Amino acid sequence: MAVTRRTVIATLICCAAVLGVYFLYFYHGSPEDIMSRNRKQHNKAAVSQGKFLHRAALKSEHPQVEDGGDDEDEGEEEDEDDPAVSSYKLWEQWVEENGYLSIGDIYDKCDDSKDRVTLGKVILLPDHEKGGVTSVSFLNHTIENDIDEGSEVKIEVSYNGKELYKNHWELCTIDEDEEEDRIVFCPIKKGPRTWKKEMKIPNYLPKGRYTAKAWLVDIDEKILVCGFADFTL
Ligand SMILES: *[C@@H]1O[C@H](CO)[C@@H](O)[C@H](O)[C@H]1NC(C)=O
């Protein structure tokens, strides 16, 4: 069968369309491109969150202080004894000292009340081996009661502002398939704990902005830890 000019043209158009869709919706650029996109986004976010906590601390100490005062003067008056403020600063400093790009925070509760304590950070790293990027969550936490069967991890992910995915898993078996990376072994005894968990952000995800919320509840549905992440591919 002779290959006609028409077949060649049709094939080329198909290839171009597939490539076009790929570049339009799926091509994220190099790991460095993704990093710099997220760096811009999070620089803005960190500034507004820093101000929010800053004002919260000021208000609790000096209820008469008005919003919109001179930012430079307020610097001296922060309440370092407030665990919400001191934990936030400690983790911010940790991010800065390590030169990390933070894409999320981990707290002791899910609502954004002023007394929530920062327990950790989610950072983004370029993945030079598999391409794309990887997230790493760091968490320092004191567990008050032993954790065993019945505790669950719940997750909600939204994509460009719309709900994309919801799921929940039993904590004790959540990473039992990950032989080398397994970090959860039940029962988890009470006391101070340090966790570090790496998660590859899949390269096949379409371009766009992702926000994720993940939280851990005990057998009585009480929230123990709650993390938020926000990144753009
Ligand atoms: C978290 O805990 C580890 C180990 O105890 C410690 O080295 C690290 O400084 C802690 N990080 C923060 C931000 O407190």
TrEMBL record:
Keywords: Membrane, Transmembrane, Transmembrane helix. The keyword Transmembrane applies. It comes from the Eukaryota. Residues 107-231 form the MD-2-related lipid-recognition domain. InterPro entries: Ig_E-set, ML_dom. SMART domains: ML. The chain crosses the membrane at residues 7-27. Residues 67-83 have a biased composition (Acidic residues). Residues 59-85 are annotated as: Disordered. This is Phosphatidylglycerol/phosphatidylinositol transfer protein. The lineage of its organism: Eukaryota, Metazoa, Spiralia, Lophotrochozoa, Brachiopoda.
